[in-house]
UniProtKB/TrEMBL annotation:
<dbReference type="Pfam" id="PF13692">
    <property type="entry name" value="Glyco_trans_1_4"/>
</dbReference>
<dbReference type="GO" id="GO:0016757">
    <property type="term" value="F:glycosyltransferase activity"/>
</dbReference>
<protein>
    <submittedName>
        <fullName>Glycosyl transferase</fullName>
    </submittedName>
</protein>
<keyword id="KW-0808">Transferase</keyword>
Amino acid sequence: MNIDFIVPGSIAQLTGGYIYDSNIIDGLQTLGFNVKIVELPGLFPFVDEEAKNAALRCSLDCPTIIDGLALPAFISHPRQKYLALIHHPLCKENGLDESQQKLLFDIEQKMLQNAHHIIVTSHFTREELKKLYATAHHDISVVCPGNTPKSILPYIDTPQKIELLCVANVCQRKGHDILLKALQNLGDFSWHLTCVGNLQRDPSTVRHVQDLIAKFQLESRVTLTGELSEQELQKKYAKAHVFVLASYYEGYGMALTEAINYGLPVVSTTGGAIPHVLGESALLVTPGNPQELAAALSKVISSPQARSDLRDKALQKRQELPSWMDSSTEFKQIIQKEYNVVF
């Protein structure tokens, strides 16, 4: 069976959404689908003419999955039978002014009304769509991200210095500024923070983060690595004692479950789907609150017992995480049901 899977730009981008798409595509191909990846050129989500024209060239003749970030390009498409894959609502992105939020809200609402079916990556996002878009589908399928099994790395918890790891592209929603404001108050502890993630996607936020590092005199304590290969990233996980992510909002939080998969203690926020995904397996604080985050980090940095307790919870939680083949099989079943095909 032929399927078109439409994404905005290159699918090789290292964000949770693209990693999800890539793994689902691999799984569907293993399950017998012939998947054609359509990488739309242009700008997203505030689409330009290049993106709109590229969308108009898509026939939508065969079963088609459109990544939610690409949906605005299809607002004028004459044929609109597709599966919409929503990682999180576009209007929930941080840094948008009121007019931008309304524009994305209106576009997404129309595109979801027109979709043949909607797939989301968390139960939280399904409920969020129902609240936001009252006229959108009430039948929304959930296919959570899968996980690649990780070897439990040796965890030596008698460090002279606590290694903190954050894996997230440096953009406003990920809360790097809040993390730095929290850490500036923990100068009496011995710690080092490594931030792995893209430094080109949001230049203004990167400059702000760099300015805060200089302002708080944290140059020797904070390292921004940019994107890393999978092999290099694994080395960072092997060195880390605590994983921390200060996101304002997550539609799922794949970086968090990856850290859980490695058996790392996790400190994060209650932003979006995070508490629904992690439950009691992590130490969570209010998003955007550096004082709460500082208190949580102080606890795990100063207390081997606190780290041990969180590690035990992570090791228990990792047993519950689905595989990518589990997720791809769920995706396959939705396609078969919605397009009434069996093979």
